[in-house]
Amino acid sequence: MVLITILPQWNQELPFKKKKKRRRRRNMDPIIIVHGGAGDIPESRVQGKLDGVKTAVITGNKILHQGGSALDAVEAAVVSMENDEYFNAGYGSVLNLRGEVEMEASIMCGKNLDVGAVTLVKDFEHPISIAHKVLTDSPHSLIGGEGAKLFALSKGFAPLPPESLISENAKHALEEFKKHGEFGRTEIGIREGGTVGAVAIDADGNIAVATSTGGMSGKAVGRIGDTPQIGSGTYADNSVGGVSTTGHGESILKYCLAHSIIKLMESGINPTAATKTAVEGMTSRLNNTAGAITLSKMGDIGIHFSSRRMAWAYIKNKKLMYGINHNQILEDK
Ligand code: ASP
User: Fold this and answer.
1) Of the ranges 14-18, 203-207, 308-312, which one carries the lowest mean pLDDT score?
2) Which of 174, 298, 305, 323 is the most buried (most CB within 10 A)?
3) Which residue minimizes the CA distance to atom 8 of ligand 1?
4) Residue 20 above 60 pLDDT?
5) What is the pLDDT of residue 10?
6) Using CA atoms, how far apart are residues 147 and 332, in angstroms rounded to an integer?
7) Euclidean distance between the first and final Cα of the chain, in Å?
8) Nearest CA among 289, 78, 66 for reference residue 199
9) Which atom of ligand 1 is nearest to the CA of 215?
10) Assigned CATH topology for domain 31-117+166-332
11) Which residues, in sequence order, are CB contacts of 332 under 8 Å at separation 6+?
């Protein structure tokens, strides 16, 4: 009893030391950047891709400004592009040699390095949402094929007939590939690119990255590329930044492109220089093209592609910037 009367209560301020207020850190201005794939994009597909990346970045930005997490924002931005036939993800994914869709996606949380990824997905509209569920609800990091299907069904994702994801453009790309393509030796497999990705920082300063793809036209049945592989297609670390990549998958994964960019930033190089150095380094070493979007933990941006084109868009300080050609930066008010 005596003790209680002489000791200050826990919730009283001590006379000699100001009690620290425990407040959640909500001081970052949220930022989101997206890409719509590196490749030799024909003129006829340019406007559709620009419209698509702008819609995606606005979708993700809305979530961030409503107080949503970076993970939810990057998922929503990618879902928006998976719905859009102008991109090689979800509906409109390119086809393997047997004429089937086999999709891949990954997502990463920079706060605790949690990851979720799926590969060889055929029956679902939104591989990125299944990957997000792997992140939150599975002890595993990457689930593929039949296992991914079972996991998705067990989490309530509705399957659909795989043919319903096939677009006319994807059929045409496979025909072209069969006529002229040499997988991995020419650029025809990624003629149009169209893989999608998003990197965001939310108000709490958490970074998340999501990437989703149909792979490359004319790929072998069961081929797995860079996109679902953490460190190649996707990487996020709150203490450095986040990266999503696109381009020639077999080269990107040999170079661990996303993580190469992170490592350069960790050594003090800014995101613009880090993204350019790693993408060009991969291209000169392996003779194939790629692109990447990067955010540093401070919210600085890096965009670079060694392909002919890559659609990108970001919203920072209430400004929407976008582009698709080299040295092109457009602004929407
Ligand atoms: N990186 C993807 C893949 O190889 C293709 C792309 O980004 O266009 O699967």
Assistant:
1) 14-18
2) 305
3) 193
4) no
5) 37
6) 43
7) 67
8) 78
9) 9
10) Glutamine Phosphoribosylpyrophosphate, subunit 1, domain 1 (3.60.20)
11) 54, 320, 321, 322
